[in-house]
DNA sequence: CTTTATGCAAATGCTTTGCACTTTT
DNA sequence: AAAAGTGCAAAGCATTTGCATAAAG
């Protein structure tokens, strides 16, 4: 289990990170950062909100949205448009491919280099490139096992 | 200008295409197909609806959505999730990269092979692949000219 | 004549907004 | 204090749904 001290240290790291970005280190933001850290589930805003509500009863969905947008602009997270129903959030801001399972709706990170996502060029034919998303759709291994249509 | 006969021929082609797919060739569907054909603007459902309304006053937005979904399932068009605000539709179903300009909101086709979108593998690490979208975000050449921030 | 598609209006659900209030710094 | 962030409720919109009517094959 994690030590009380370890937790305090991480909290301080998150706070400094926020201040470094010119943002105020509010409990809400620290909680969102902590929840996202190492989270590979690509949660939606609602999921983040629901997960944090028990510990932060005053938290509002609007704050979640606003924080996530700010974090994206600061380059700390990615906002994914892969899910047609809702925005999904990825704490890993480095470019990598994502997979959306049309059966369970889960979003997965794909191993780097699998569909090759070469480093983003500064520019493509006059278009200034700022971000690239590679979205793969289909059926995930788990769902392929449960429903046995095709391979 | 296009001959009356040429138009009739294309209409027949569209009708046969629909029937081949097991769909009924209704005026609404023919109109949507005709509007999409060769359209490089990646219109939204609303845009398609507005464009067709003058000639088909009875057309409804629900029909536009339903037709587009059917056409995607039939593999005739692509539904893009590149625009965070709304669904965009591409009459070209072959895999190619798209560019979304955050200033004007337009969606462009990128030349094939620019960000290389290799043919989609049947499967990646156990994930069954059915579709790949490569979405590039940034500023388009037109907007780079108008606002002269950065390069 | 059967089946499929359409149109309407209402409903749904995600995301944003305005604003008064609270917290950081 | 000043500036920035939060929470709430309402508003905004894109998309879907249910169902009665209409058109296609």
From TrEMBL, chains A, B:
Binds 1 zinc ion per subunit. Binds 1 Mn(2+) or Fe(2+) ion per subunit. InterPro entries: FUR (IPR002481), Fur_C (IPR043135), WH-like_DNA-bd_sf (IPR036388), WH_DNA-bd_sf (IPR036390). It holds the Pfam family FUR. Fe cation binds at residue 118. It comes from the Bacteria. Zn(2+) binds at residues 101, 104, 140, 143. Keywords: DNA-binding, Iron, Metal-binding, Repressor, Transcription, Transcription regulation, Zinc. CDD domains: Fur_like. One of its GO terms (molecular function) is DNA-binding transcription factor activity. Signal peptide: none annotated. GO terms for biological process: negative regulation of DNA-templated transcription; regulation of secondary metabolite biosynthetic process. Its cofactor is Zn(2+); Mn(2+); Fe(2+). PANTHER family: PEROXIDE-RESPONSIVE REPRESSOR PERR (PTHR33202:SF8), ZINC UPTAKE REGULATION PROTEIN (PTHR33202). Belongs to the Fur family. This is Transcriptional repressor. It comes from Ammonifex thiophilus.
């Amino acid at each position: 289990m994690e030590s009380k001290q370890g937790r305090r240290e991480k909290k301080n790291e998150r706070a400094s990170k926020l201040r470094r970005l010119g943002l105020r280190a509010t409990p809400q933001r620290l909680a969102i950062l902590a929840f996202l850290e190492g989270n590979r589930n690509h949660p939606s805003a609602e999921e983040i909100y629901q997960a944090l509500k028990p510990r932060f009863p005053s938290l509002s969905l609007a704050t979640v949205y606003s924080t996530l947008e700010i974090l994206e602009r600061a380059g700390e997270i990615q906002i994914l448009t892969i899910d047609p129903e809702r925005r999904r959030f990825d704490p890993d801001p480095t470019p990598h491919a994502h997979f959306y399972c049309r059966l369970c709706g889960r979003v997965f990170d794909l191993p780097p280099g699998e569909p090759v996502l070469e480093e983003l060029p500064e520019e493509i034919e006059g278009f200034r490139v700022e971000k690239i998303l590679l979205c793969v759709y289909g059926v995930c291994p788990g769902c392929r096992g449960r429903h046995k249509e095709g391979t």
